[in-house]
Each structure stands twice: as structure tokens, then as C-alpha cells.
Amino acid sequence: MISWSTSDIAGIHLGDSHVSAVRILLKGQKVPTITHAGWEPYDSGAAEKDIAGVVRGLWKSLRMPTRMVSSSLRSSSMVMRYFKIPVMSDRDLKSALALMAEEALQLPKAKLSVDWHIEVRPPKKETGNVMVEGLLAAAPIKDVERQLTILSLAGLDPVIVDIRAMAVANLFQALDDRAGESAVCLVNMAPHSADVVVMRKLGGVYPYTVFCRASTWGQSPGFLAENIRDVLKYSEFKLDWDGVKRVVLTGEVPENGDFLESLRTELRLPVEVWNPINDMAVQSQGVKDQLAKNPVDAAKLVPALGLALRRG
Known about the structure:
By secondary structure, the protein is of the alpha/beta class. Helices cover 34% and strands 29% of the residues.
């Protein structure tokens, strides 16, 4: 049996404009240590074999010592839903969530890939109106198969397929000293999309992906702020979670200072930028130099960092 906690697994993210990959050493380290890291531009709409060629080239250039990978799923049709339903048997729960996915994507079950994570499960001894809460994720199975095909053609062995938003949330919870002190809104930014993730103090994650309508996020802080407000309202009034106390931006955050000030004004909340690499160790001088010389590009590594930390 494979032990995911000790296996040598790299994280790979097929983003909006770049493929990024990271390998992290955990065993015996006080803090996670980056041993390999890099990125390569690519056309996300290219043929599978062409994208696989980019991935192979990146793997070779990084001299990555493992072919086992944790990957994020790239699918514009993917849906994420927080659910809160009465406690039922595992079989009935599976059927209920499959039906929820069919309704959300308007596709038959045979054409869907469905998964879920239980956030709150009441003790079995409890009776009455008790609920089970969690996160449902669903995507067309063809999108999942395309991702697996690309990785297979590149000679990699995908052992975990995760969601970008959840990978970044796991990264934050693993590295931020204040995670868990109060409700936080984490915003992972990519060139044309952003993951808005609410993490409540007592546990529970509500993610929502926003797609940019302008050419860049720097040109549309108001649109992002509007969507962040909507997500915060949903988590507070629909899910009955505590109000968020701070907003943390990570990933490819626009460098324009006015962008941050606009968000602070619109949201009326503290807004800060978080670079997870600052909370990690870097093993080789070559990787240190690469990250230091290319800080803007290094921000593309954020999802891959979370994926590389994923175990099981």
C-alpha cells in the first residue's frame, strides 16, 4: 500500500498562461522546504500532446526526481457547492450529491465526475434535526480525462487531482500562523480568474471562482470587490458563519498600489498580500536565485505549492 504521507509527490498546476511545478520536502523539516520549482508559458487551449510536450520540457529542465504528481483540475465548467443536508446513509448521501451535481451542470451522471469533502458530521448518537455539511465538487468527466491524458502523455503519474481553490486554502492553513484565529477570506489571483475562499474559525471552507471581465484585474478592482462582498454575505447570512475579519490576497496580485487601496475602500476590511514562499525554506541556491530574480513570475507557483503539500 502506498503511504501518501511519505511518498515523493510533486505539485503541478496548469494555469491560465503557465504550467508551474514544485517539489517540497517535508520529512524532518521544521518548515516545508522547496527543493525544485519552475514555470513555463503555454497555450491552455492547445492540443493535449502539445501541452504534454511543455510539461515534459519543464520536468527535464527542473531535473525533477519524481514522476508522481498532485495536479489541479482545469475546467471552466467545474462547480463547487457548499451543502448542508440531513444526516443519511452513505449510499443515500452519494445519490443526493450526484443529483445535486446533475442539476448544477445539467449533465447526466454518466458524464460527470463528482467528489465531496465532509466538513461537519454530527456524532452518530445525536438524533433529531441534525445536518451534515461539506463541499461538493463536480465537473464534466471529459475535462478530467483530458487532464489525466496530458499528464500521462508527459510521462507523469497523477495520484491526486485537486481543486485550485482548495489547494491554496490548504497551503494557507498550513503556513499562516494566524489561520484559525478568526474567519478569513483568501483570494488567489490568476490573470483571468480569482478564487475567493472563505475559511471560518471553527473549520469549514467555502470557495467561489470569479472570472475577470476586463483585460486585467488591475483594471477592475470594483468588480472583484463586488464579488468578494457577495461571497462574504453568502457565508455569513446563508451559511450562518462568523463575519470575516481580514482579506488576504495571494498569487498574481496586480502590483498597482491603487488596486489594494480600492479593495480596502470598497470592502471596508483590512486587505493584505501574502507570499507563501516567504514562509518556506528553499534548499538550493539555484532555486533561490530564480525566485529572487523573477518575483512576479514566482507568484505563479502558489497553486503548485499547495498541491505539492497535499498528501492523501
